[in-house]
Design brief:
Elements lengths: L12 H6 L5 E7 L3 H12 L4 E4 L15 E2 L3 H5 L3 H17 L4 E11 L6 H14 L9 E4 H7 L8 E12 L1 H14 L3 E3 L2 E8 L5 E8 L4 E12 L5 H8 L7 E12 L8 E5 L5 E7 L2 E5 L3 E2 L13 H14 L12 E10 L13 E5 L5 E5 L5 H20 L24 H11 L7 H11 L3 H11 L8 H16 L5 H8 L2 H4 L8 H11 L4 H17 L9
Parallel strand pairs: 1-2, 1-10, 2-7, 4-12, 10-18
Antiparallel strand pairs: 3-6, 4-6, 5-6, 8-9, 9-10, 11-14, 11-15, 11-16, 12-13, 13-14, 17-18
Helix pairs in contact: 2-7, 2-10, 11-12, 13-14, 14-17
The protein binds flavin-adenine dinucleotide.
């Protein structure tokens, strides 16, 4: 079997990084969230050499902290953002085709309530337009339902206020895994990417044009210099911080808003459907079943500029808002703060508009080019990352044409399967799972375990099973589940640049959010293996353990009030 590329290997990360010193690229990308990853992929798809640096782990910024929906953004229709809704709406099906293992259809129920923000006719019309703009297939078109049907679909809804409802389709994803699969695809086409590497300064030529950057590797504490003809700032909530390294920020600037999600055990909110429902303040939030949990979100509040962008925190007020809204819509559940088993918080890198509330700020992306040549991209959504990348690299190729008549190339990502998404049709996945289960039946791996792997790693799953087989003779005392976990860890060290427990348990596998209760019994096993593979000394091992434990506690620590 053909082995996947090893360029995202933690085992040779230090060597690969140092080899870049003084190298020249067509494009240097700052930020390894979904925006930067998409830009690397687009650049590689057009044959441009490129390198990406991420100061934390890949997706550790906003791209692991979203609602995890690939969606058209129904509420943007209300704000008449027709272009945005059309674009992201159409991207949904395309992403499902190219990465069906991590972008799956999800039916949504939209209850219409007395004195709510949606009327029966306006919802029927709105959902119709939504489907039409997104070119939705006939069998995925919205349906409208009377009260009794809505209550049958979701008996936990508050009956006395329900008037009717609509059902429509969105897609569910794992944002951080989508980011890593995009990056792995980019790497397979020639990109280079490194986590924990921070752009600290820019370099300029005699004409004061940007020509390179200094980069610091936080893991091996080494600095290098890399030159590039075009430098793209895709630093999400840090876009203005990076712009300020280049020049004073004039004109448009970012406006960060905070969004919180809480997770409860599925049996405390056993929804049959994902529900998008009204909150009393006029906003709408989601409650979405996932694995053995249901998650609820999001809030949308201005984020003060004096607080840390790296470590936003969940406040008691955020949690109480979400619990109150949920209990009002699903009264029999009576959720309490003690029911929460995990949470996450992210910052939306939106573009400032005078006088608008957080929810009114546009989710559109914009590109700014500084007088010295730094290209910055801000705003946007996870769902629209491919088109954002295309627009950014369009700017680059136009500049290249102007500078030296390099022929204009066009993006080639529309039909590009993402790493792990190498299925002929999305509908082939169940058969693929059965086939793998049959092939490996002698290994005692259950079909459910194969299923869980396939919906994370897609067609890369056989590589994990090969590693499992490799580990078998050395780990006879471990259970199948433990050995499989180690195989997953080895794969992610070798092919997804996992460098510590948090990378693995939060951004590669989302276990901290959706399976936190399983972590306690496994993390020492994982820690020991990481220490062995990455040759940590005792001090490093302790440091990484402490860092993970802080994150492990933080998802259940809610600060009293934020200034
Ligand atoms: C609560 C919430 C819910 C959302 N829900 C959805 C949803 O369901 N669907 C959807 O489509 N969108 C959603 N979004 C929007 C979406 O998550 C974001 O638009 C997207 O993740 C932004 O990605 P990004 O790559 O631009 O930023 P980020 O993911 O933040 O990436 C930027 C990266 O740049 C790095 N960086 C910063 N400075 C430097 C430097 N000097 N050197 C190197 N690296 C640097 C950071 O560490 C960071 O990782 C949601 C957002 C929030 C906050």
């Amino acid at each position: 079997m053909k082995q996947p590329t090893t360029m995202l290997s933690s085992l040779q990360r230090a060597k690969d990084f140092e080899a870049l010193d003084q190298q020249h690229f067509d494009v240097l990308i700052i930020g390894g969230g979904i925006t930067g990853a998409g830009i690397a992929l687009d650049a590689s798809s057009r044959g441009l050499s490129n390198v990406l640096f991420e100061k934390q782990d890949f997706a550790a910024g906003t791209s692991s902290r979203s609602t995890k929906l690939i969606h058209g953004g129904l509420r943007y229709l209300k704000q008449l953002e027709i272009g945005l809704v059309r674009e992201v709406g159409q991207e949904r099906a395309l992403l499902h085709r190219n990465a069906p293992h991590i972008v799956q259809p999800k039916q949504m129920l939209l209850p219409i309530i007395k004195e709510g923000s949606l009327g029966k006719t306006s919802t029927a019309f709105g959902l119709y337009v939504y489907d039409w703009l997104a070119n939705v297939d006939d069998d995925e078109r919205r349906t409208m339902h009377e009260k009794n049907e809505v209550m049958e679909m979701e008996p936990l809804l508050r009956e006395d206020i329900i008037q009717a409802g609509g059902r429509y389709w969105e897609y569910q994803t794992d944002d951080a895994r989508l980011t890593i699969e995009v990056l792995k695809t980019a790497i397979s086409l020639g990109s280079h990417a490194f986590n924990y590497t921070e752009i600290t300064d820019f370099l300029y030529n005699d004409d004061n044009k940007i020509i390179g950057a200094k980069i610091y590797d936080h893991i091996h504490q080494k600095a290098i210099v890399v030159y590039a003809q075009h430098i793209v700032n895709a630093a999400g909530p840090w876009v203005d911080t990076v712009r300020r390294k280049d020049d004073i920020v004039k004109g448009k600037r970012l406006h960060l808003t905070k969004g919180v999600h809480i997770v409860v055990p599925y049996n405390r909110l056993p929804l049959r459907e994902a529900v998008y429902f009204d909150v009393q303040d006029g906003r709408m939030i989601f409650a979405i079943p996932r694995r053995k949990t249901t998650y609820i979100g999001t809030t949308d509040t201005f984020y003060p500029t004096n607080l840390s962008i790296e470590k936003p925190e969940v406040s008691l007020q955020d949690v109480e808002y979400l619990l109150k809204a949920t209990n009002e819509m699903f009264p029999s559940t009576n959720l309490q703060i003690e029911d929460i088993v995990s949470s996450w918080v992210g910052l939306r890198p939106l573009i400032h508009e005078d006088g608008k509330s957080p929810s009114e700020l546009s989710r559109k992306d914009e590109i700014f080019i500084s007088s010295k040549g730094l290209i910055s991209i801000a705003g946007g959504k996870l769902t629209g990352f491919r088109k954002m990348a295309e627009r950014t690299i369009d700017v680059v190729v136009k500049q290249r044409y102007k500078q030296n008549k390099t022929p204009i190339s066009t993006s080639a990502t529309e039909d590009l399967k993402l790493s792990g998404g190498n299925f002929k049709n999305p509908e082939d996945i169940p058969n693929y799972i059965t086939d793998l289960s049959n092939t490996y039946s002698q290994l005692q791996i259950t079909e459910q375990q194969i299923h869980d792997l396939v919906y994370k790693y897609g067609t890369n799953t056989p590589h994990i099973i090969e590693i499992y087989q490799e580990l078998l003779p050395k780990n006879t005392k471990l259970s199948t589940t433990q050995r499989l976990l180690l195989a997953e860890l080895h794969y992610s060290i070798r092919h997804e640049m996992v460098t510590n427990l948090s990378d693995f348990l939060i951004r590669r596998t989302a276990r901290l959010y959706f399976e936190r209760e399983t972590i306690e019994e496994t993390y020492f096993l994982l820690l020991d293996e990481l220490a062995k593979q990455l040759q940590w000394n005792k001090k490093q091992k302790l440091q990484y353990l402490r860092e993970f434990e802080q994150e492990y506690q933080a998802v259940l620590s809610f600060i009293p009030q934020q200034a």
